[in-house]
Each structure stands twice: as structure tokens, then as C-alpha cells.
Amino acid sequence: MEHGFIAWAKQRSARLPQIRLGIGDDCALMDPISIESVVTTDSLCDGTHFILSECGPRAVGHKLVAVNLSDLASMAAKPLAVFLSLCLPRQSSGEIASEVFEGVCESCERYQVAIGGGDTNVWDGPLVVHMTAIGQAPQGGAWLRRGAQPGDAIYVTGSLGGSLLGKHLNFEPRLSVAQSLHPLGIVRAATDISDGLGIDLLNMTVASRCGAELELNLIPVSEAAEQRSRESGRPALEHALGDGEDFELLLAIAGDALDRVPSQVDGVPLTRIGTFVSRTGLWSKTRRGVEQLPPRGYVHG
Ligand SMILES: [Mg+2]
Asked: Could you point out which of 39, 98, 160, 185 has its C-alpha 20 to 30 Å from the C-alpha of 154?
């Protein structure tokens, strides 16, 4: 399979100037990235991050690209190239490989990202896919998780919760939001929501050595979270706080710049959901006052 697959993959993938020598040699050659390179990697395993028999291999390729690009978006980086590595189940390995690759190609074409190379292996385990993505830091520097200050507002893109109902396989990495906001110079820290709003916000506060106070009634709860709530009997807000794999951006915006925050970018809403505070930990602000919030987001409805 290897030779024919590589020839096909080389032919199938778009040639873009950021990769001087791509698929087909031992390594790829890239010209130096002018300012600073931003590099990330992610793995997805059948049974954990997707169910192959339910979603099919092409969707796995889409998700693999999107999770990596979401990490680049969270640092406001521009994606340039990806490298992928597939561990294929022995049964129908050829077909799975080409379908995953097709999904990767479709997503890469969409964002003008080059496929610099990869590797395939066959084994007796389930499908496991890996990707490394390389991007270019924006002028002025990448956003980091650290940098939020007490008094900064907490903003989130889109809506949260219930990603298991489909969004986790089919979401838009927030590259255009990041690229529109970065030049405004109002974002002090950022991350993307992979583990869940509660956990990812907590990670941001730990990195920034501060705390966060959420206004629970402001959190944009998705339709899917409402649907999950009807199935689980738990409040939809709990799904929005704890489900994860939303791949929305979580931002710290300087408290004196709120009048410069657009209400949406390319149709993606930006919502203020709270404030970074000096007291460490996660807190929720309700009518009753301020209460500590468990990061997994178990809230009493
Ligand atoms: Mg991330």
C-alpha cells in the first residue's frame, strides 16, 4: 500500500509555497518562517475522540486538522503546514488511509494549509491519528494563556455545550476571529476550549496567577446543550461548563477596551461572561452573591 498511497497522496495534496519540498522524501523542506514559528500537535484515538464505525474516516481527517488549527487560532497564529501520522487498523487499512487523507486534504484546502508530509503504519489496534501543525506568530506576538489581569473581561466565541451531538466532529477553528481581534491589541490572554469552559478557564487563571468570576446567566448555552440536558436531566448550563470539545476561543480582554470589542466577527458572536479577579480560583456570581464553582461545572439548577 505504502508506495501507491504516497504517490496518490503527493498528487492529491495542494502545492503551496510554504513547503519547498513536500511529500515523497525523508523530510520536508520549509523556508524559514519570518517572525516566530508556532507549533502544536494532537492525537485522536478511535473510541476516545471519535467512533470510527459511526462517523467514518473522512470526518476523522476533518477533526484532526480542525483541532490542530484551533490551537493555532488560540495563539492568533496563521497556519502554514501540517504533518500527519496514521496508525491504521489492519482491516481495510488502505481504504481508511485514503479517506482520512481525503478529509485532511479537504480541510487543508479550505484554510490554505500545506500538507508537508506524514507516515502510515498498520497495526492490530484501532485507528489512531496524529498531526503536527506549524504556523506563523502574528506581528506583535502570539497570545498566551498567561497575561490575564484582574479587571480584564472574560469573553467567549460562539456557544457552548453538547458538542458530542456533532460539533466535536464538525466545527470551525476560530482563525478568522483571532486574526480580526489580534491587531486591535485588546486581548491579553487566550486559549481554546477543549476540556470544557470550567477547566480551560481555570488553566488560564493558573497561568495568569489570578482567579475568574463567571456570570452564569451570561454564558451562551448552545441548542445542543439544551438537547443534552433533556436527555441527561442535568441543567444545560452544566453541559455548557463541562462538556468540552467546543473549540471556541476563551479570551481575556483589557477592562478598559470593552467598547472596542466587536459583537461578532464573520457571524461568530463574542460574549462577555465574567471578569478576571485577584482572588484565585473559579467563582460564580449569582443573586445570592459569589460562590466557588467546581471546574467540571456541577451547578444546581
Ligand atoms: Mg488548546
From this structure: 39
Domain co-membership, 8 together with 126: yes
| Ligand 1 centroid from CA 147, angstroms | 16
Q: How far is the CA of 41 from the centre of ligand 1 (A)?
A: 10
CA of 61 to the centre of ligand 1 (A): 18
Residues lining ion ligand 1 (Cβ < 5 A) are 71, 192
Q: Residue 33: its pLDDT value, please?
A: 80
Distance 249 CA to ligand 1 centre (A): 9
How far, in Å, from the CA of 13 to the mean position of ligand 1?
26
Q: Are 38 and 136 a contacting pair, CB within 8 Å?
A: yes
**Confidence at residue 294, expressed as pLDDT on a 0 to 100 scale:** 82
User: DSSP string of 19-73?
Assistant: -SB-BTBSS-B-PPPSS-EEEEEEEEEBTTTB-HHHH-HHHHHHHHHHHHHHHHH
Backbone angles phi, psi at 39, to 5 degrees: -125, 135
This model's pTM is above 0.90:
yes
Q: What percent of the chain has pLDDT over 90?
A: 87
Output the domain CATH number for residue 58.
3.30.1330.10
Answer yes or no: do 278 and 161 share one domain.
yes
Do residue 17 and residue 87 come from a single domain?
A: yes
- CA within 13 Å, CB half, 4: 5
Distance (Å) from CA 177 to ligand 1 centroid: 16
Q: What is the pLDDT of residue 296?
A: 72
The amino acid that residue 178 corresponds to is: A
Residue 9's domain comprises 2-136
The verdict on 187 and 58 lying in the same domain is no
